[in-house]
Amino acid sequence: MIHKIVRRAKVDDSHLPESLSPLLKQIYASRGSSADDCQLTLSRLLRPNTMKGLDVAAGIIADALKDNRSILIMGDFDADGATSTCVCMLALRMMGAGRVDYLIPNRFDFGYGLSPEIVSVAHSKGADLLITVDNGISSIEGVKSAKALGMQVVITDHHLPGQTIPDADAIVNPNLADCNFASKSIAGVGVAFYLMSALRAELRQRNWYQEQGITEPNLANLLDIVALGTVADVVALDSNNRILVDAGLQRVRAGRCRPGITALLEVAKREPAKIVASDFGFAVGPRLNAAGRLDEMALGVETLLCDDMMSARRMAAELDGLNAERRDLEADMQQEALKSLESVALNEASLPWGIALFQEDWHQGVIGILASRIKDRYHRPVIAFADAGEGEIKGSARSIKGLHMRDLLELINTRHPGMILKFGGHAMAAGLSLRAEDFTAFEQAYDQGVREMLKPELLTGEFVTDGSLSPAEMNLNIAWELRNAGPWGQEFPEPLFDGHFKVIQQRIVGEKHLKLVLETECGQLMLDGIAFNVDLKTWPDATIKHAQVVYKLDVNEFRGNQTVQLMVEQIEAM
User: Fold this and answer.
1) Rounded to an integer, what distance in angstroms lies between the CA atom of residue 407 and that of residue 413?
2) Are 501 and 546 spatial neighbours (Cβ–Cβ below 8 Å)?
3) Where are the beta strands (DSSP E) in 330-474?
């Protein structure tokens, strides 16, 4: 599907530092940056005292440390959950915790969150205090079960709460209505980091470190993990998140990161000294996520916790293998999904506004990626379902701009009580369970809800660009400046440009990628370009001599040589 191109309007950038190039000043200003936002220093992080519940949670954990009670971190099976678990495990160990362990539910046996079933497992392990990370805000029954078994529960989460919240001993979630913490987009790992910072301060006040004869830990050592989880969870990179991510990237570039992150970068063929946020998002995060999708996320957690480089490399290689398996599964599922939509897709008007897909043999661990791929293809909100056994199916939802997915599921749940067995999530992503027999009825209710909540013009995708670049601006200096001016990510997008080019050469590489040689319309400059996953029914086409191209300016390094390369997001024949 060809997206329309919308250029950002020119805005006043006079408030930004003169040390920035004119191009970068305009790019920053168009994203709403202030002069302070250009200073990504840790001293500008939001203060912990504005996050509701941190003090209570820190006090409970400090008491557990003092009494040498058993602490169990209850994680989640994605990259945010894994990194959140690691931050708590490492911080608590540094603070002298003698009895701390973690437990991450297997998605196939227990599903998401603090369920009564996983609480029973935690109880059998002798846990006295449960700390949830990146989950728990919807675990009403799980918390009730834990309390009945005599355990304390501290919930840390960032997902949107429902109308009822669990009766936990403490809840830390910036998205609670009465929490004044300004960064509502913080990832679960960010919440965990703030909790550990508050705990460190609480223990300092109690004179804990001197009494135990240990050095107060420097939690900045954990920021590489925080950065990985934040980018991998695709949360909005507001000012606070950009500070956290930038600090973590700096540690990696300086060679001061966890062996597991170094090993994952190695198998992904990324150079740590030159890493940018997108390397976490597209190279490291998927390999970490592969463990939770196809096997046990404990492998991902152990990779990050590992202190030995040889062991880290062995586990990273295993994760790389799982990721390759995940890609093969996803490719097969995507082909099946596209085939089922092919007949209606020929007539765009007949496509449902909300696409719901289900196939019995689809893999539960891959449906989220499948939903994302189909969403990108048709620019419609998508829910992909897989069989969950015992007559139930589990769905993973991905939305588009203008449709709040969790609010939509809430609407359907209100209109059709009992149809959705459980659900939760964000504006852009959510999960849910249904009885298999209710899929057709849900499919209709879902499409109807999308039609009511989404404006029709939003069904047409768009690329918002920073305009065109002159041939003089398409150079290595500017490419490096843009690359290093991040971190770029969700809601703080990497600079994107558009322009008309002559198509000099075109060929397919790697079976589905289009390698290009493009020339600026005035003939002043010739550049290499690459477009990934092109429509092979359209490209290559020797009759296409001119094209409108949407692209990012990038640096291609090959055998020690650096050249400018256009990363083509869309190419349309003219």
Assistant:
1) 10
2) yes
3) 355-358, 382-389, 392-398, 420-425, 429-435, 462-465
CA distance 24 to 478: 9
> Measured in whole angstroms, how far is the alpha carbon of residue 134 from the centre of its chain?
12
* Mean pLDDT value of segment 177-185: 96
Cα dihedral 398, 402, 406, 410 sign: negative
User: Are the C-beta atoms of 278 and 494 separated by less than 8 Å?
Assistant: yes
Question: Is 400 within 8 Å of 379 (Cβ atoms)?
Answer: yes
Number of helices and strands (H, E) in the chain? 18, 17
For residues 273 and 292, give the distance between their C-alpha atoms in angstroms, rounded to a whole number: 28
Instruction: Quote the CA–CA distance of 329 and 269 in Å, as a whole number.
Output: 22
Which CA distances in Å does 405 have to 50, 135, 512?
Answer: 28, 18, 32
**Rounded CA gap, 94 and 37, in Å?**
32
Q: At what angle do helices 79-94 and 285-294 cross, to 10 degrees?
A: 100
Q: CA of 65: how far to CAs of 72, 199, 203, 208, in Å?
A: 12, 11, 9, 10
Determine the residue type at 125: K
**Could you tell me the maximum CA-CA distance found in the chain, to the nearest angstrom?**
78
pTM: 0.92
- Whole-number Å distance between alpha carbons of 199 and 335: 49
Element (H, E) at 80: helix 79-94
Asked if residues 317 and 301 have their Cβ atoms less than 8 Å apart, the reply is no
Query: Which residues are CB-contacts of 344 (< 8 A; sequence separation ≥ 6)?
Result: 350, 351, 352
The SS3 of residue 403 is coil
CA pair distance 86, 100, nearest whole angstrom? 12
The average pLDDT across 429-454 equals 96
The span from the CA of 370 to the CA of 356, in Å, is 11
Rounded-to-integer distance, Cα 426 and Cα 394, Å = 17
H helices within 346-403, ranges in order?
367-378
pLDDT tens-place string over residues 266-324: 999 999 999 999 999 999 999 999 998 888 889 999 999 999 999 999 999 999 999 99
Question: Which of 44-58, 114-128, 341-355, 507-521 has the least mean pLDDT?
Answer: 341-355
3-class state of residue 427 by DSSP: coil
* Cα radius of gyration (the chain): 24
Closest among 533, 537, 187 to 373, alpha carbons compared: 533
DSSP 8-state symbol, 556: E
Lowest pLDDT segment from 278-287, 330-339, 409-418: 330-339
The token pair that represents 555 in the structure block: 């640096």
- Nearest Cα residue to 396 out of 320, 292, 282, 296: 292
How far is the CA of 227 from the CAs of 85, 184, 192, 282, in angstroms?
14, 17, 12, 14
**Angstrom distance (rounded) from CA 179 to CA 192:** 16
The 3-state DSSP class for residue 14 equals coil
Per the DSSP assignment, residues forming a β-bridge with 513 are: 509
CB 67 within 8 A of CB 97: no
* Residue 225, token pair as written in the block: 């993990």
Contact between 117 and 110 under an 8 Å Cβ cutoff? The reply is yes
- Alpha helices (runs of H) in 379-512, residue ranges in sequence order: 405-415, 439-453, 476-484
